[in-house]
Amino acid sequence: MNKKVKQNLGFLLLFLCILTTVIFLGLILYFIIIRGYSVLSYEFLTQVPKKSMTAGGVAPAIVGTFYLTLGAMIFSLPLGVACAIYLSEYSPQSFIINIIRISINNLAGVPSVVFGLFGLAVFVKYFGFGVSLLSGSLTLGIMVLPSIISAAQEALTAVPQSYREASLALGATLWETIKRIVLPTAFPGILTGIILSIGRVAGETAPIMFTAATFYMRGYPNSIFSEVMALPYHIYALMTEGVHPEVQTRIAYGCTLILLILVLSMSTLAIILRQRQRSRTYYGT
Amino acid sequence: MYKKKENTIRWIFTILAFSSLFFLVGITITLFISAWPAFQEIGLFEFILGREWYPTYDPPDFGIFPLIMASFLVTIGAAIICVPLGLGSALFINELASQQQKALLKPIIEILASIPSIVYGFFGMVVVAPYLQKLLQIPVGQTAFTGSLLLGIMATPTVCSISEDALSFVPNSFREASLALGANRWQTLTKVTIPAAGSGISTGIILGMSRAIGETMTVLMVTGGAAIIPTSFFQPVRPMTSTIAAEMGEAVVGSTHYHALFAIGLILFLITLIFNIIAELISRRYRLKLGLGR
Fold first, then answer.
1. What number is the ipTM of this complex?
2. Any bridge partners for residue B74, and if so which?
3. Which CATH number does A60-279 carry?
4. What would the pLDDT profile of A121-138 be if each residue is shown by its tens digit?
5. B contact test, residue of A21, A69, A241 with most B CBs within 10 A
6. Nearest to B68 by CA among B250, B279, B242
7. Looking at domain B29-289, does it have CATH number 1.10.3720.10?
8. Which residues of A touch B125 (CB under 8 A)?
9. What are the start-end ranges of the E strands in chain A?
């Protein structure tokens, strides 16, 4: 075959690959938006479910997802940033870095349902927190820890060495330098990572299935030990439980659309923030 | 005074930094402890190689061989879809796309990666499965194939972004040398760039597969759930992850069934651990090869 023809065919193939990927994204968004749009209303967003899930809204699920995400972040954010600070600022020996890096990578690869099992055995049963907001938040927090660490570490590494040297030369201690110079400079980068993680936590289902989520609640969770409704679990439950499949599928479309809007606005926000930082930050040479 | 405070802070950070290791070890120990009674009561070989999974029958059968086969079948199917799509997309973005196309395509891939698995599962259940059922004239639309298709699409962004990273690390001098020798762009791509990025690309593929085998919600909603050893792509199957998710709610705490589900979790955890270690080893060798390692 002619060299030129082969090249054109090859390039066409690559183009088809990316086209297929983009078309799939388009299809998913199209179906969810078209069919979910008609379900959304002010009532759907603000009312509690009524008549065994066939009427009313899904407000407790939205609130539950918010609480779970908040709880997970309260737990994993300080821990993740501290770990990243240690790795990038306190420059430990390389074998310690390796041990920590390997554990982070492996923790990141653990299937989400296994985190659910861990949460069930440790938080729900062993510590006796029960199926609760607290158990779910802790489980989700552990799950999202690796992404927070890598995001924070990346942001810290991007802070120029000269900033640290200038601060240390002025007599500041290492901790003062980290607190006053390094963290504020790295903050926008860390924020981007946090926003991406929030999107991920909000959409996770398997870790909260046995640790926090419940299908039906009359009101809102009133303590960290109460069960919660959560959007992703609610979608699953609507599709697999209950006795009114048609009405429930409709509601599930609405929930999926809300979840997609939440998650995608988070990732879009993160992408925009990152691009703005890249074009604006000028660290000098 | 200063020195003392600095040292205390340093110690706090050191302890917190080991949290990942702590949790990883904690997960391993918890799974072992909770799974142990199952191995004792069922027997390790009967458990892994047993061909019947009927946990609620009397007497119950706890053989997870069909579940393991189902997981691998669905994952291999997903790989057949995500490897060409992910790698092809990465090559297009990195080698062919203009600056503007890149600025458009990279965020699209990232958005695809951030869609939660429950959304893929829901989409698969209400749109893909009924469509496939009609198109292929099969009795149920929820099959191993449906699961593979959706998992493949889910894993595509993982494969794509890691391969794209690997491709961008290939020094331009490699490409220039090949072009200067008279090779055209396609020859350069297939004979120089892809082999040079080979280990990075394989890391991406392994991590993509590891993500697919551990994925729960999507397979739970679209693979149907029949615990039989699969003989074809177009029949319902029950992978390991969906078994845990579907049955944990009804298993009595402390029963053999409960411990058996933890044992499935342990085996799943070990499989993904092996995937991740292989990826780690390959990517280390690759950093050394391109002179990026320390």
1. 0.90
2. none
3. 1.10.3720.10
4. 999 999 989 889 999 999
5. A21
6. B242
7. yes
8. 239
9. 49-50, 55-56
